[in-house]
Design brief:
3 helices, mainly beta, two-stranded antiparallel ribbon, five-stranded antiparallel sheet, elongated, 11 strands
Length: 225
């Protein structure tokens, strides 16, 4: 758990205030990195080999010898963002959906008082170690040894659509509210092709970078010697 408050999340937070002659911001507010809750749970289970093996046996073979599984869950509450009272095609973080947008969206409420939703990610890794011996036999009867680890890893096992960024007017990751806002309808209707404008605007608004990465699978080999 953490409480990260300050007068600015970066060196440019108070630029507009200083440029307007109002001086530095002196009121504490949640910083952009203020994630109140961060939970990590890791479960690891492994079968040994030889006399220490306690797993299933099939046709006299220790089929899960040196096999391990690791399940990791990461969960955390949402980071803060600043709510705005309207959408004119421009976002406070610099994203410009509408090329003709002028100015910034007016801020609603205090700085960083809104929160992104809670996010949870589960990762799974299955691996097996193989003991290798190579080279000429030494005088003591031993040879050089190495360990080969073969694994398959699934990141974001449940394919959760975790939101990492939202549009500040709606708090939605897929809709900035511009097309539905009453004060924007005249602007939209005056376009050369209203329906085409709505379709293209919607396509640009659906920003995949607002979400964490989807499920990925990795197959790997690691040699230790």
């Amino acid at each position: 758990m953490q409480f990260a408050d300050g007068t600015g999340s970066n060196t440019t937070t108070s630029n507009a205030l200083v440029a307007g002659g109002f001086g530095n911001l002196r009121t504490l507010a949640p910083l952009n990195v203020d994630q109140r809750h961060n939970i990590l749970v890791a479960l690891d289970y492994r079968y040994s080999s030889g006399k220490n093996y306690s797993g299933p046996v099939l046709f006299g073979k220790n089929i899960l010898q040196n096999v391990g599984a690791n399940l990791t869950m990461r969960a955390g509450s949402g980071r803060p963002y600043t709510k705005t009272s309207e959408s004119n095609g421009t976002e406070p973080d610099g994203r410009n959906i509408l090329s003709t947008a002028v100015g910034n969206n007016p801020q609603q409420g205090q700085l960083n008082t809104s929160r992104l939703p809670f996010a949870t990610t589960v990762d799974l890794k299955l691996d097996r170690n193989f003991d290798l011996k190579f080279g000429k036999q030494k005088e003591d009867g031993n040879r050089k040894e190495a360990s080969l680890n073969v694994y398959i890893q699934v990141l974001n096992l449940l394919n959760a659509q975790n939101i990492i960024r939202v549009y500040s007017f709606t708090g939605n990751a897929n809709d900035d509210g511009f097309l539905a806002a009453a004060n924007n309808q005249t602007n939209i209707e005056q376009r050369r092709d209203e329906q085409s404008f709505r379709d293209l605007y919607s396509a640009k608004m659906y920003d995949g970078s607002n979400f964490a990465l989807p499920r990925r699978m990795r197959l790997g080999i690691q040699l230790n010697f």
